[in-house]
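User: Reviewer 2 asked us to show a designed sequence for the structure in our supplementary figure. I'm pasting the structure tokens here. Could you produce the per-position amino acids so we can include them in the response letter?
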């Protein structure tokens, strides 16, 4: 009689498969990979610009970009534009967070809030925020208000839905235990749901902070007299690609700083979830 039992996997083979699925690396290896992710593109850029295959007008060398950045710092243009952009980011992104976090929290905790808010927010989030620029200029003018409003529109809907998803992931058993111990709805929301969801809320803010930077540059490309986007437009008129590269690098470094800051805050407030 032929046996139909499934073949047994050797323990060594199974262990090897499990090891291949491991995603963690040592701290030293992680730092080497981080350095390589920056140095390899930088060396490739430097080599391509030095080879002369691409004209300096289209691809300036890293030393030229560094010199252009220093020149803008010495003239005061770059610090002033950076402060203008940071001010708009702080106002627009901060206002979007103040609106979206309570809305998302309500959608995740109140039974009536999700069917009431999710359909309209789900529609609005698919409308490109940049498409509202003509209307914002008509309604609010070309001043700061329209630029901040564009940031709010670009962030608030996505952050609301992401916050709601995080809040809905609070385990039902945790809520049941809180109710058994006699905690009321307000106390459960403030002492159980919000602390549990806070790390995920900060992760959503990290993702949408990048979107805020995209929209502030778009807002400054149109009818602006200051800001990094405005400075890019001026450099483009005179084919100053070295200045454009320098500004792009500054935007990337500021965005990375914001991301690392939110990661550190998340690690501190959500240490229990790691």
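Assistant: Here is a per-position design you can include in the supplement:
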């Amino acid at each position: 009689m032929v046996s139909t039992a499934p073949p047994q996997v050797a323990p060594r083979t199974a262990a090897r498969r499990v090891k291949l699925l491991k995603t963690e690396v040592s701290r030293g290896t992680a730092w080497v990979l981080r350095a390589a992710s920056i140095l390899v593109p930088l060396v490739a850029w430097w080599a391509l610009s030095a080879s002369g295959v691409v004209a300096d007008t289209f691809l300036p060398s890293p030393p030229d970009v560094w010199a252009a950045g220093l020149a803008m710092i010495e003239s005061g243009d770059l610090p002033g534009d950076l402060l203008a952009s940071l001010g708009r980011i702080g106002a627009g992104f901060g206002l979007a967070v103040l609106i979206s976090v309570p809305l998302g929290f309500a959608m995740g905790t109140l039974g009536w809030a999700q069917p009431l808010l999710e359909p309209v927010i789900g529609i609005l989030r698919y409308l490109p925020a940049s498409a509202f620029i003509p209307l914002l200029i008509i309604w609010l003018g070309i001043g700061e208000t329209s630029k901040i409003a564009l940031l709010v529109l670009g962030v608030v809907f996505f952050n609301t839905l992401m916050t709601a998803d995080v809040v809905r992931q609070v385990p039902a058993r945790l809520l049941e235990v809180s109710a058994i111990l006699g905690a009321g709805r307000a106390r459960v929301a403030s002492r159980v749901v919000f602390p549990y969801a806070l790390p995920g809320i900060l992760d959503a803010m990290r993702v949408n902070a990048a979107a805020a930077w995209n929209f502030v540059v778009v807002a400054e490309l149109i009818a602006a007299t200051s800001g990094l986007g405005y400075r890019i437009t001026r450099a483009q008129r005179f084919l100053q690609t070295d200045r454009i590269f320098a500004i792009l690098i500054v935007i990337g470094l500021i965005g990375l700083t914001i991301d690392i800051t939110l990661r550190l805050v998340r690690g501190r407030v959500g240490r229990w979830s790691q």
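For the response letter, you might also mention the following. The CA atoms of residues 57 and 241 lie 6 Å apart. The chain has a mean pLDDT of 86.
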